[in-house]
Write a sequence for this structure.
């Protein structure tokens, strides 16, 4: 960190553009640089070039799949769905158990499913239709989780057991190439979880699925922090 | 795809989410290091994408850079709000600045630079490369770096500015 010859004016401009693009400027300096964006096209171009250059760092991050409820939350906030699909685990009197509501419930769900499913299918390549399963069981047999993959759709079902107080089981997708495991979500507290596999995750018999014991909400770093409690390869079914 | 999202095409928006959400979630998580906060931020990011898609065409960034920039800025805003610091307004405005469409030549130059970036970072001194990554991927500020290095802010700043300039020289060779 030695002091060297001062920067030339064009180097100063470049450094300023980099600092603006990366968000290191504060206060008056930040305001002045932002004002310059609309007055000085060359400077604005330098800032964009820096944004492009630096975005490569983010593209190299290991993808971490977001839980299905994130997409549902977005749809609800944008008004793309009318009713929540997620059931409230704290509800004391589940409405779907009431007989008169059952029929109406099914009708709503069917309509919602058709709405969610149809535009989805239209925009996607037809799934190859290969189906795989993996049965994840802990050594003491206390936890059983079934994973099913059909084309690009994946379902994780909790069959037996539960995460400890303040803990969650996180699901990892492990490629045979030795790259870092990719988080694809958390084992649901009950029932099953459905998701669409993100690009880059291609099911095959070489893929292993693992569960690790993590703090509630999942690993805070995006990499497994707790012990792996179960692991199994996908098998063609 | 973003053009179709701009026209209010929900299936295009869904498809965009499928292809990009795990990457943007990783960006949010890298900055925030907190699962629930990253998930909320991710939701904010896609809401902003849906609302601002019509302005995308004029900003001159490649699609993935635009998305990453939004995700990173949202996550950093949140990080700094958590530390009760003024939010990083500047970078957020930078993402909406208008420009002309980049020509094929500049697209090729950018692709070339992206390939070089990793090599250039590994060629840099570890300390410098780590600082650049900490700022971009974890939202570190000059004050954070100064604390980490045990040096005055001005020293750290001039050092990081030079690091960034040498990175640029390296990738654009």
């Amino acid at each position: 960190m030695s002091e060297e010859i001062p920067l030339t004016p064009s180097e100063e401009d470049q450094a300023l553009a980099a600092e603006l693009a990366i968000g290191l400027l504060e206060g008056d300096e930040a305001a002045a640089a932002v004002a310059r964006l609309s007055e000085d096209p060359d400077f604005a171009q330098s800032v964009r070039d820096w944004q492009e250059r630096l975005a490569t760092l983010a593209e190299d991050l290991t993808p971490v799949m977001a839980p299905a409820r994130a997409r549902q939350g977005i749809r609800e906030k944008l008004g793309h769905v009318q009713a929540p699909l997620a059931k409230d685990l704290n509800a004391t009197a589940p409405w779907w158990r009431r007989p008169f509501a059952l029929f109406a419930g099914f009708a709503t769900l069917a309509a919602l499913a058709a709405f969610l499913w149809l535009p989805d299918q239209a925009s996607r390549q037809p799934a190859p239709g290969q189906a795989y399963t993996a049965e994840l069981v802990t050594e003491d047999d206390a936890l059983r989780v079934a994973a099913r993959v059909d084309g690009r759709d994946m379902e994780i079902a909790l069959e037996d057991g539960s995460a400890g107080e303040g803990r969650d089981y996180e699901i990892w997708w492990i490629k045979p190439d030795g790259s870092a495991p990719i988080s694809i979500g958390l084992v649901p507290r009950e029932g099953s979880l459905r998701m669409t596999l993100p690009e880059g995750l291609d099911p095959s018999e070489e893929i292993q699925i693992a569960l690790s014991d993590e703090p509630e909400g999942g690993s805070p770093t995006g990499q497994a922090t707790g012990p792996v409690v179960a692991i199994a390869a996908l098998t063609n079914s | 795809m973003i053009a179709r999202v701009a026209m209010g095409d929900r299936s295009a928006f869904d498809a965009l989410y499928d292809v990009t959400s795990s990457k943007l979630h990783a960006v949010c998580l890298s900055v925030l290091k907190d699962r629930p906060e990253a998930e909320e931020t991710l939701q904010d990011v896609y809401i902003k994408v849906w609302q601002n898609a019509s302005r995308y065409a004029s900003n001159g960034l490649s699609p993935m850079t635009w998305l990453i920039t939004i995700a990173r800025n949202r996550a950093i805003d949140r990080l700094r709000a958590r530390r009760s610091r003024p939010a990083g307004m500047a970078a957020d405005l930078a993402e909406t600045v208008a420009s002309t469409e980049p020509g094929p030549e500049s697209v090729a130059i950018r692709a070339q630079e992206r390939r070089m970036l990793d090599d250039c970072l590994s060629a840099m001194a570890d300390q410098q490369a780590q600082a650049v990554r900490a700022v971009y991927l974890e939202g570190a500020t000059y004050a954070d770096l100064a604390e980490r290095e045990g040096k005055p802010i001005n020293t750290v700043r001039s050092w990081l500015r030079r690091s960034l300039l040498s990175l640029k020289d390296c990738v654009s060779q």
Notes: Confidence is low (pLDDT under 50) at residues 82-100, 117-127 of chain A.
